[in-house]
Specification:
By secondary structure, the protein is α+β, with helices and mostly antiparallel strands. It has six helices and 19 strands. GO terms for molecular function: RNA binding.
Length: about 350
């Protein structure tokens, strides 16, 4: 079987209209999908099965080909950016139809950088999931409120010539009030979710290539807002499956006689990741920003512990990439629901 993985390579900052688009698209799928899931298994508690595989390949982001003159222009601009880590960004891929960018990913938080007053600078970072839209702007800490954010969202649309988005995803629960208020005043649906994958990877890249080179950077400064990792709770009854299994890629499959309604309910959640908890002998499902469910349990034995650890190791080796599928039967090649998931570490800022 072909295997997939994810390799987070560097995102390059752009301040001019140079075609630039990753090939990966981190979106959920709920339509039936043909896959092959063949491997041996053994029974765990409640007719559950566990399967693992360690095969994976690396993928890379690729940039679109451009003309020789464009490359020379890009290299010149990148040299300027490299010399000025204080530069802000306002970029829209000219090959993208503005009206097609309907969902944004947004972060509005302090950075480990001090201004001339000795206070931490805040930064607004906005992108879409393909990085066709990229925007950054610094703010002093005494203007942080929903009005500032609302005005900034309008400014982005005016500068880049894009319509207001239909949805904005954000991953910091501490800023939910500010972001929600700003979005609702503009008629935008705010979605608290850790599925801001392009944004999280971009923040990691900016920390390494921008923030650490800023003249006000404070080495060793702790993030002002850490991500929630709450204690897991019981799964709602309508999300239970009949059986589950680990299969290849790494990959988690759930079988249910109610596969279609189960997939519909799951599709209403912002499914982020699945984690194997060997200490509690269970699988944990992370959704939204700060919700974790005990998704399934199994009988704890040396064999099952070894296999769950192997699955987690494979997921880690694949850069956190894993899948969740809902099927009517574990032996079926059809999926009623299929989600591509990426378990990323918290951003360094």
């Amino acid at each position: 079987m072909a295997t997939l993985s994810f390799n987070p390579t560097n995102f390059r900052d752009q301040t001019t209209s140079i075609p630039y688009k990753p090939i990966s698209n981190f979106t959920s799928f709920s339509q039936p999908t043909k896959i092959s899931c063949t491997s041996t298994s053994h029974t765990i508690s409640n007719s559950s099965t566990l399967k693992t595989s360690s095969n994976c390949k690396r993928r890379r982001f690729l940039v679109n080909s451009v003309s020789e003159s464009s490359i020379e222009e890009a290299e010149t601009i990148e040299d300027v950016i490299d010399d000025d880590p204080t530069a802000e960004m306002s970029f829209l891929d000219p090959g993208t139809e503005p009206e097609n960018i309907t969902e944004w990913e947004l972060d509005f938080c302090s950075r480990p950088i001090l201004d001339i007053r000795g206070k931490k600078i805040w930064e607004l970072v906005v992108c879409d999931n393909s990085l066709s839209l990229q925007y950054t702007k610094y703010f002093p800490n005494n203007v942080i409120n929903s009005i500032t954010l609302k005005n900034a969202i309008v400014t982005i649309c005016d500068e880049l010539g894009v319509p207001l988005p239909e949805k904005i995803r954000f991953f910091r629960s501490q800023l939910q009030t500010i972001i929600t208020k700003a979005c609702k005043e503009l008629g935008i649906k705010p979605i608290p979710s850790k599925r801001c994958l392009s944004l999280l990877l971009w923040l990691e890249e900016r920390f390494e290539t921008i923030y650490t080179r800023h003249p006000g950077f404070q080495k060793g400064a702790k993030p002002l807002m850490v991500l929630d990792n709450p204690f897991p709770t019981e799964l709602p009854e309508n999300l239970f499956g009949d059986r589950w299994a680990f299969v290849q890629l790494p990959y988690s499959a759930v079988a249910s006689s109610r596969a279609k309604p189960l997939a519909a309910w799951m599709n209403g959640l912002e499914v982020c990741s699945i984690e194997a908890d060997t200490a509690r002998a269970c699988l944990l499902l992370s959704v939204g920003i700060s919700t974790r469910y005990i998704y399934a349990t199994y009988k704890k034995t040396p064999e099952t512990t070894q296999e769950t650890e192997a699955w987690e190791a494979t997921k880690k080796a694949c850069g956190g990439l894993h899948f969740l599928a809902i099927q009517e039967d574990l032996d079926s090649d059809d999926c009623v629901g299929f989600w591509l998931l990426l378990d990323l570490p918290p951003p360094p800022v």
